[in-house]
Amino acid sequence: MKAIDLRNKYLEFFTENGHKVIPSAPLLPENDPTVLFTTAGMHPLITYFLGNVHPQGRRITDYQKCIRTGDIDEVGDDSHLTFFEMMGNWSFGDYFKEESIELSYRFLTEKLGIDANRISVTVFEGDQDAPKDKVAFNAWVKAGIPEDRIYFSGKKTNWWGLEKGPCGPDTEIFYDTLKPKCSDNCSPLCDCGKYLEIWNNVFTEYNKIAEGKYELLSQKNVDTGLGLERVVMILDGKKSVYETELFVDVMNTLKELAGDKYIEKSARVIADHMRAALMIMVDGVVPSNVEQGYVLRRLIRRLIRHMRKMEIDMDKIVEIANITVEASKEMYPEIDEHKEEIITKLVAEKDKFVKTLEKGEKEFNKYLIQAKNEGKDTIDAEKVFKLYDTFGFPVEITEELATENGIRINVQEFNELFKKHQELSRQGSNQKFKGGLANDSEIVTQYHTATHLLHKALQIVLGEHATQSGSNITEERLRFDFKHPQKVTREELDEVERIVNEQIQKDLVVKCEEMTLDEAKESGATGLFENKYGDLVKVYSIGDFSKEICGGPHVERTGNMGRFKIKKEEASSAGVRRIKAVLIKE
Question: What are the residues facing 42 on neighbouring strands?
C-alpha cells in the first residue's frame, strides 16, 4: 500500500467514526519552549486535554510530521527514523479506553487486513499512583486478543507523561515480525526487534503537579499515535522501512554511487538524515550552532560523513537531495515547493563542513607531530575528543588519518569521553521538558498576549512585511522572530515599545470568536502558518488594535500585563530578526 493511501484510509476511517480532520502542525512548535521540535501529534493539542474546547469538537483525527533526535546515533536499524509521520485520533472528554481500543483493533484487522494472530499488546500493571489497567486488559480480550498475548508493564513502558502536566497509562500495540525469539521470555517488552511497536493509545486522565504527586484531570482523554512508515513496511511485507517506496529510490541511488564501498547502515543514515534535514529546512530553520539549527547542522554533517565513508563524491549531495524530494513530495508538497531554497542551504552547509574537515586535518597534524616528538605511538583521547567537539571533526576520520600515519588513537577512552558528553547533552535536552507542556500560567498567558501586540506594532513601525516567523515563551521572557531584511534601529525599537505599552495602558478587552477560516480572513484576521488550521478557528481581537487566528492562551484585558521592555534585537537567520522582551511589574 502506498503511504498516501494508508494516510487517507486512516483519516477516512476515523471520519466515519465521528472525528473531524485537522491538518498537521509545523515541525517547529509555536509558543512552546519545552521542545525544539514537534515530537508527537499531541504537542499542538495538549491544551485541550486540560478542558479547553477545540474548535472542531471533542473527536478529532490528523497526521503529524514529527522529529525525534534522542536516539540519533542509533538511526539505521530496521524501524527507527529521525523524521516520521504519526497518525492520530483524539478524544477530549468523549470516548475512553474501551472505544479507543475497539477502534484501533478494527482499523488494523478489518480496514488494513493485518493478521490478528500477529498482534500483541502491553498494558499498565499499576503502582502507587494509578491502579492496574484491568479496563484496557478486558477491552483487548473482548476485541479478540488472547490473554497470553497481553503483557503488563510499569511506568517505564506503559505510561506517557513528562515531568509535569497531563499524563496517564497507555496500551501499546505490537506486530510480530516472525524473527526468532531472543529467549524463552521473549515478548513485546524485549528490545530484540522481534516485536515491532506500531501504535500507542494513551489514556490521559491524570495531571502531574509535582514529583510523585498526581491529580485527576477534569476530563478523561485519549491520545493515540500510529507510525505510518512502520505500517507501510508491514503491509508491503518489507523487512525495514528503508525498503518501502519512501526510501527505496534513494537507497538504490546510494548503492550505485558507492559501488563496492556500499555500507547498508551508512546508506540508511544518509537516507534518513537527508529527509529529516530537508523537512526541517522547509519550516525555515537554517544550520547553526544553537537549538533547532544545531540539530539540523548535525544531521547534515552526519550524512556527509557517511557519504565520505562510502567514498561518494560530495557534489552528489544535490542528486541525493533531489531524489529525496521526488520521493517525498506526494506526501509533503511543501518540500517540492521549497526545493530550490532548501537545497541551496544544504549545499552551503556542505561547503562549510568541507572547510571544517580541512581545519580539522591541520589541527590533527599538529597533534601528530607533537606525539611523534614525544615518542608516543598514540594521540591522547582528550585531543581526539577536542577535534570532535571543538572542530566538528568525526572520530572515524581521525582514526583513518592516524592509521595512515602509523599511529593510533585510543577509541575506548574517546568513547568514554563521548558518553559523558552525550549524557550531559541529554540532560540539557531534557531540561526542555522540565516545565511540562502547555504551561498556561498567568505570566505565560500575558507574554503570549504581548506577542500579538508586538507583532502588530512591528508592522506599524517597519511595514506589513514584518510578519511572524516563530516565537518562544517562558515565564521569564518572550522571544519573537519576524521577517525583516536589516537590523532594527534603536529609534524604531523605542517606537515599537511605546505602541505596545500604549495598548497595555488602554486596558483593552481581549475577545475570542470561533469562525471558519474563510470568515477569519474576510474579517481581516492575521493567520500565521495557515496550513495548520482546520475548518473552524479561534480569532482573538485585542480591542481594535490586533486581530489574529490563534489557539491561545490570552488575558481577558491588557491592563494588568505590566510594562513591556525590549531587551535585545538580533539576527535569527537570513532575512529574519529576533526580539527578546520582558514584562516588568511595577
Answer: none
Q: Where do runs of H (alpha helix) occur along 17-154?
A: 46-49, 97-106, 134-143
Instruction: Please give the grid coordinates belonging to residue 268.
Output: 540508511
Residue from 159, 96, 100 nearest 124 by CA: 159
CA distance 425 to 423: 5
State how far the alpha carbon of 398 is from the alpha carbons of 359, 371, 401, in Å: 12, 14, 5
Angle at 157 between CA 154 and CA 160, to 5 degrees: 95
12 three-state secondary structure: helix
The single-letter code of the amino acid at 35 is V
C-alpha cell at 471: 516565537
Residue type for position 481: D
Between CA 266 and CA 270 the distance in angstroms is: 6
Pull the grid cell for residue 507. 486596558
- Taking only the tens place, the pLDDT of each residue in 82-123 is 999 999 999 999 999 999 999 999 999 999 999 999 999 999
Residue found under cell 529529516: 276
Sign of CA dihedral 237, 240, 245, 251: negative
Decide: 135 and 84 in contact? Cβ < 8 Å.
no
How does residue 581 score in pLDDT terms, banded at 50, 70 and 90?
Answer: very high
Would you say the C-alpha torsion 46, 49, 55, 61 has a positive or negative sign? positive
**Per the confidence metrics, is the pTM higher than 0.70?**
yes
- pLDDT for 234-280, tens place per residue? 999 999 999 999 999 999 999 999 999 999 999 999 999 999 999 99
